[in-house]
Amino acid sequence: MSSATYVADPRADAAEAGGRCAGLALVGCPNCGKTALFNALTGSRQKVANYAGVTVERKEGMFATPGGRRLRVIDLPGTYSLRARSPDEAVTRDVVLGRRADETAPDALVCVADATNLRLVLRLVLELKQTGRPLVLALNMIDIARRQGAEIDVERLSAELGGIPVVPTVAVRRGGIAALLETIDKLPPLAASAQPRPAQDDGEWREPDAAAIRALHREADRILKVCSFRPGDAGLTARIDRVLLHPVFGTLILLAILFLMFQAVFAWAQPLMDMIKAGFDLLAEGVRTVLPAGMVRDLLTDGIIAGVGSVLVFLPQIVILFFFILLLEDFGYMARAAFLMDKVMGAAGLHGRAFIPLLSSFACAIPGVMATRVIDNRRDRLATIMVAPLMTCSARIPVYTLIISAFVPAQTTFLGGWVGLQGLVMFGLYGAGIVSALLVSAVLKRLVWRSSPPEPFLMELPSYKMPRPRNVLLGLWQRATMFLRRAGTIILSLMIVLWFLSSFPGAPEGATEPAINYSVAGIVGHWLEPALAPIGFNWQIAAALIPGLAAREVMVGALGTIYAVAGAGEDAAASALAPVLTAQWALPTALALLAWYVFAPQCASTLAVIRRETNSWRWPVATFLYMLALAYAAAFVTFHVASAFLPAG
Amino acid sequence: MQLSIAMDGPVTAQAAEASPLQDAAAGAAVALGSCTRGWRGHVADFDSAAAAASGGGELVRRLLEIGFVEGASVEVMHEGPFGRDPIAVRIDGTATIALRRRDAAAIRVVPEGGRASGRIR
Q1: ipTM score here?
Q2: Which of A84, A340, A456 sits opposite B99 (nearest CB)?
Q3: DSSP letters of A509-568?
Q4: CATH class for domain B29-112?
Q5: pLDDT tens figures, A416-437
Q6: Range name among A235-249, A555-569, A624-638 with the lowest pLDDT average
């Protein structure tokens, strides 16, 4: 994703006969249905980019009013106030006030309100009014408000707000959109002056202090009192919360949901993963029969097909995990999970909201790091970003699975066969990731950022809503394509590079050692071996760690290439990797590699996303270094303890 | 981009200015942070000492923004499973806000009965 500076849409310019295309901005509190309204207005005519310098999503679309005007509309990040605290809220403030150089100041604002919860948004409306820009209030989710028995006097509300047009809408069902468009058409002529970029203009808005916030609240309360009637019933959400936030049952339900998620990720995904694997094996076999033996055939089968296949095999797991996360988020449960886990997170110096990013990091640290945007405070956010890569992402699973299946006996079980040693080791590796993440953040908050004042934890628990299948499917599609694009670009090219590195230069005439020993990968591996010998790694592991730096799962493909090539022959290449490793490595080495992988900073994409999210090289470098140090230390301790206590061989 | 916002003076001074209920409420007021599940009442004012321990003026502004204004009705709906922390507070029967007891300690509240004085709303 590149950061885009705004370029006027040429079609729009034509439509306005050379004049500037007028722009609207959607503003509103979080969870008010702003994005649903944006979708209802623009349909598929949207483009998504990032604001320069910050990774805040910039969504822009076009639509035409019944009056024949074409308008640009941007969907701004949700906020309770123009007094911005997070980068997202700062973007909203700066766009509304025309302070951003890369964004045309909006000609009019549409404030989107959750009609079931008007109190906070009215204060925002009053703040927006101070900016002096034309303003329309969309009373969204009016159907839910009415079903709850609320009555809102729309005309009175409009009058009390000083004549601001107020339009009831049901954005998810496109209700009230026609009326909203008509109202927009009636606004004072937008952009008639055709000035290219109205200068920064705060109007009468000044950053409110405590007294001003109180005054705005009093005014909002007064307006609310005369314009609306709300029954006292807390409704369905309160009844559901009585169970889901119950100290005992709520916690048990959260654990059950997490268990179900992981059960699904590991068990349900297996048949699909086997199918994908079989498909790639078949493809490689097909290529092998069609093409003559030679370099091209080897590159295709051993390099590209085997390599990309070893990564694509994770797609089912990622899709299943995100299915759960998106479903729970749409339902409104994620804030409850944060509520239940806040004490645990808080003990580690983290914000309750860090629970969601850390949970996402079990699939992949990239969406996890991106999800930290919900955390307002910079230090809380940085702490979460820095520990997110410690959560066991699905890219570590193939490495863990390979080594566990090669070195941990499957026959060893406990409790009458219900608990296997292999499963216990896997569980221990997950536990080690979680515990180390909490410890690292506790150290960061207690030692590094000791001087900063503690950050309040204030979070609205939104009303429960039926998840909309379209939202969930759209989110899944975005996640899946993001992963596929990564597999198709970074990982594909790395596989090719890796294959060349481990194939060239070839073995000299009359060579006695395996061919890879003479290749670039072998040379680098040998060169690194002295540094890694204290933690029990041989040169093959060292050589596989290099391409594994691009993405952890590549390590498996790399080991496959290295040992398949080292085995020199069709037979060795065809046999599974696990028995080869069992024969080649000592147990302490295997355990040290597992320990290394709990901490290993081996994911260029994660470091790149940290760079983007923090807008500085400092944090990815710090993350890389501390993880590298922990990985080396953990592998060192594991190797030496294992060597001392385990029987040799 | 840490937004540095200076504390704007002693909190109680402002609260006294802004809240006519303080005198009537002062006797019965307790910290919201110490209330248990099912507790109902109204926001009286803010405790500057408790606020200073946890973010100061910035904490008070954020509490105000999310709806803890003087006179707002509050009900403690839920308590966290570990150490009964954080708490979920329903404000004016509409929004439910989760916050930690340490932060809630800055909000002084009067119980439901305080309404009898006729001074609250």
Answers
A1: 0.76
A2: A456
A3: TT--S-GGGGSHHHHHHHHHHHHHGGGT--HHHHHHHHHHTT-TTHHHHHHHHHHHHHH-
A4: mainly beta
A5: 666 678 888 888 898 899 999 9
A6: A555-569
